[in-house]
């Protein structure tokens, strides 16, 4: 295990390059989607690796987000070496744009129908193992690149205090053993209640009032009725926060650490993720090096390899608190991977958001935004055309410039063209 506190930046711009050192011992694929518990899923995670992706059927993560927009965002920067597994291919217009902008061939994409894809992957000898964002109940354990029991443990909110870094004080509770009403809660607001394996911010409740607590309890009961939850965390609320970071790095099978990048996270008052901003030259990762080394060592000792992102709050006294650790590719990882490509263009600052929307079709979107796309002021990672009476296109995108001020000017220009934040 390499425990030096001086780490180098990753020099590539794709997941294929990032994972290259660890996938030459077998044939690997990258499953681009998370599992789900939705009723439409052919392979719901409802037996062992419970995931909290919505307490009711109506508010579960939708097919178009889970299997299309989210998956395509990572597919855009997959690179040409590792095979990408998807159940829904992007439109050709998006492929054409990616080829022109990122320069990858995208000939390594395997499209398998959602109704059979995990059975197919279990039986297919073409692939030995898979990089996953989360363990799959229906994927054979030996097919997971990281042992699924290990991966599930690392992804649990209850594991945070075991990592060896400063984090908010919290207690975890097994709801198979204790009734929600019997849990001793903090006497003062605010505090947090979190489910153990929430997806995309789902299951994190900021308790500021009795009404918040009642709502949280009603949501937790729904999860319990659906038998998709067993563990929750009751956590201290970090006050006087000045910065919210997502620190990302890669830990290899041999324990070597490579920096991916650090973003300043954009979140709502409720804690919902909106995106991130990064300054490729000025972001100082040195203050996170001890945390990186400690978390990397913990992951390595457990047998994990791959991308890691951990969320850090910095308060007004300069204290750093790790509030979450994601042992997987993170939402803003594709933004971090643009580091060298954008610096070559003189663009030092970039902003990522998954909440862009523009009226019209995908074809008209490319026409309207053509100047910004050609200059790399705007980069499309994922785009989904929605037809609901009036056409509009949802976009996961990056705005890139040489300063925060120019980012704001580009945003204004794009707004005048109809690109809005949902």
Give a quick summary of the entry:
This protein has helices at residues 15-19, 63-75, 92-102, 117-123, 148-155, 210-225, 289-302, 333-336, 339-344, 362-368, 370-374, 404-416; strands at 8-9, 28-31, 83-86, 109-111, 129-131, 170-174, 191-195, 204-207, 231-236, 241-251, 257-267, 273-279, 306-315, 320-326, 349-359, 378-388, 390-401, 420-421. The protein is of the alpha+beta class and 422 residues long. The chain folds into three domains: 8-154, no CATH class; 157-236, Dna Ligase, domain 1 (2-Layer Sandwich), CATH 3.30.1490; 345-421, Alpha-Beta Plaits (2-Layer Sandwich).
- Record field, number of beta strands: 18
Radius of gyration: 21 Å
Give the count of structural domains: 3
Structural class: alpha+beta
Poorly predicted sequence stretches spanning 5 or more consecutive residues? none
Distance, first to last CA: 44 Å
Globally, the shape reads: globular
What's the overall average pLDDT, rounded?
A: 95
Number of helices: 12
Q: State which percent range the strand residues make up.
A: 25-35%
H-E order: EHEHEHEHEHEEEHEEEEHEEHHEHHEEHE
Sheet of most strands: 10 strands, mixed
- The portion of residues assigned to helices is 25-40%
């Amino acid at each position: 295990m390499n425990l030096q506190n001086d780490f180098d930046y990753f020099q590539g711009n794709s997941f294929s390059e990032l994972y290259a050192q660890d996938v030459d011992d077998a044939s690997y694929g990258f499953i681009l989607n998370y599992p789900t518990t939705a009723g439409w899923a052919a392979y719901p995670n409802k037996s062992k690796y419970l995931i909290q992706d919505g307490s009711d059927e109506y508010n579960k993560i939708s097919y178009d987000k889970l299997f299309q927009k989210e998956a395509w965002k990572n597919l855009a920067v997959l690179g040409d070496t590792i095979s990408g597994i998807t159940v829904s291919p992007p439109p050709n217009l998006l492929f054409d744009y990616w080829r022109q902008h990122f320069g990858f061939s995208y000939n390594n994409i395997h499209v398998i129908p959602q109704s059979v894809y995990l059975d197919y992957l279990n039986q297919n000898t073409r692939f030995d193992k898979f990089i996953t964002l989360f363990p799959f109940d229906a994927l054979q354990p030996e097919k997971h690149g990281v042992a699924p029991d290990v991966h599930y443990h690392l992804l649990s909110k209850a594991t945070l205090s075991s990592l060896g870094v400063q984090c908010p004080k919290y207690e975890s509770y097994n709801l198979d053993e204790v009734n929600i009403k019997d849990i001793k809660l903090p006497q003062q607001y605010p505090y947090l209640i979190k489910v153990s394996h929430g997806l995309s911010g789902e299951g994190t409740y900021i308790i500021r009032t009795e009404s918040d607590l009642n709502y949280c309890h009603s949501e937790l009961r729904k999860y319990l009725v659906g038998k998709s939850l067993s563990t929750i965390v009751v956590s201290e609320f970090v006050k006087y926060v000045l910065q919210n970071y997502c620190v990302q790095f890669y830990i290899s099978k041999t324990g070597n650490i490579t920096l991916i990048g650090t973003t300043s996270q954009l979140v709502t008052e409720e804690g919902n993720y909106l995106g991130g901003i990064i300054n490729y030259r000025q972001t100082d990762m040195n203050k996170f090096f001890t945390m990186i080394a400690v978390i990397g060592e913990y992951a390595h000792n457990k047998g994990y390899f791959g991308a890691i992102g951990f969320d850090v709050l910095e308060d007004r006294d300069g204290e750093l608190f790790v509030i979450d650790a994601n042992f997987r590719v993170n939402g803003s990882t594709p933004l971090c991977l643009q580091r060298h490509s954008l610096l070559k263009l003189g663009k030092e600052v970039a902003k990522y958001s998954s909440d862009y929307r523009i009226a019209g079709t995908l074809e008209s979107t490319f026409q309207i935004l053509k100047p910004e796309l050609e200059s790399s002021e705007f980069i499309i990672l994922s785009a989904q055309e929605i037809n609901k009476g009036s056409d509009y296109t949802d976009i996961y995108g990056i705005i890139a410039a040489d300063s925060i001020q120019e980012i704001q000017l580009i945003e204004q220009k794009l707004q005048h063209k109809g690109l809005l934040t949902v």
